[in-house]
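Continued from yesterday's entry.
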Amino acid sequence: MSRPYAKLPAWIDFGLIPLLNLVIAFAVAGLVVLMVGESPIAAARLMLQGAFGYGEGFGFTLYYTTNFIFTGLAVAVAFHAGLFNIGGEGQAYVGGLGVGLVSLVLDRLVPWWVTLPFAILGGFLFGALWALIPAWLQARRGSHIVITTIMFNFIAASLMVYLLVGPLKPVGSMNPQSRTLEAGAQLPKLDGLFAAFGADLGGAPLNITLFLALIAAFLVWLLIFRTRLGYELRTLGFSPPAARYAGMSQTRLIVIAMTISGGLAGLMALNPVIGDQYRVQIDLAAGAGFVGIAVALMGRAHPAGIIPAALLFGVLYQGGAELAFEMPSISRDMIVIIQGLVILFAGALENMLRPAVGGAYRRLRLPATQTLPVEEAT
């Protein structure tokens, strides 16, 4: 994505500025906690304890992180092409349909390791196809991608409700969900791996989808920064006229970027459908598509930044739940306020500190003895 300010070193652009924005966000959140009569330090301690202090909490933190890595990567790919994909929630939802249909067919026939590749393909294809329609409308008809992807979130929700209260609901069931998947579509948990290091994950649903998310992050890095297609996508995002002048097809690039973006969002459904609940159910995305926007913004649309940003929001989700339980005066709504402050300062106001930090950096780099030429001084 293009920047409105002069380029800064990577350690400032991707490290210092996001960190300062995060500090301000938590400082303001601390004032909110003070307003309800609680100690910000105690609240922060409880949040960190809930997220990292015991095995089950850490497992839930990484479970949420997995979801946010997928949706953050989805938004980032579109960002690099100059597109704002707000439809990750709907694409993840429909991706869950793809994962679920494959799993419902194979779970009684083959082991999980045979089902998994087909479930990955199903989730990716269904998410990609759901993003393809807004992409085509943007590329060929000039429809704004933000508007169409938002509307497709609602269409996806309505479609899934229809399927889960009708064709996919087992006979005699009153719940809007598919049947429970058998062992052939249940991904292994990571409790055994963590037990080897002395950690007990308890009932945390952390599973091997975490490794799939990390592999996806590496593949997105390769695509965006090490391939010709990635160069073309970044060129389109930086300057559409330059991309057209270079002979790049804007229509082709928009469609490719959005289908890859939608496919990545669809992969998020692997985690809840075959990694945790073992069924397709209402609201399986649980807001992860929208959180992915904040994760991509905070991570500067780079996989190396998206992973820690996803972990931060995993901490906010899991630690926030523990905080609301331990401090009754801090309701779940206040946790949402804290999350919103992080999004505000780390996302929407990401350039708030950039001019000051950039100016300070340039002043510090000037030699202390540097003076103006005589003719300029006079």
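--- second protein ---
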Amino acid sequence: MCNLYRLDPSQKVFDFTAEEIQQLNVPLDIYPNYPGIVIESGQPKAMNWGFPARLKHMKPTSKPKPVNNTRDDKLRTFFWRDSFERRRCLIPVSQWAEAWGKPGAMTKTWYSLPDTDAFAVAGIWRHSDEWGLCYSMVMTDANMQMAEAHDRMPVILAPDDYQQWTHGTPDEAFALVQTWQGPLVVDATDELWSVKR
């Protein structure tokens, strides 16, 4: 699952200028519970990456955990269903990262689309009492290029499918939840994967 992605704020994102994107003041590297940009109702908005969840074993005073990824086979379950049916969005992404290697020495491998500054990943959003507006990234089975790193990848949407994802019926939107069949650019780095931020 994706726990790190980038959106380069110096680039034009879809129909929005770099200046419009930079005004939202989000970081280049976006981790769970960080602010990121989504396109909702045709406008770029800053939201928190991850729906708040309280697990059964957690104390009432514990902070909720951000659930930042939504598996395709869970979209119609109780936790996600209302957002999937009523509040779908586009998440602009320049690259996403997966951990690669042995535990304790894992490095970052970045994935992107060729000749593309920003592409859209399927997202859902909602309002939360804890963090205000928040969003989650929809995941499906990984394609061959990244299957060794992880068995899941983000649902990448072609530009012709943006309207169907955001405004189609739930069934029309679900038909787009597929493994990306196009090529990926893979950048295997020696940068250590670290959860310390």
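The helical segments are 18-22, 78-86, 162-167, 170-174. The longest strand covers residues 119-128. Will compare against the first tomorrow.
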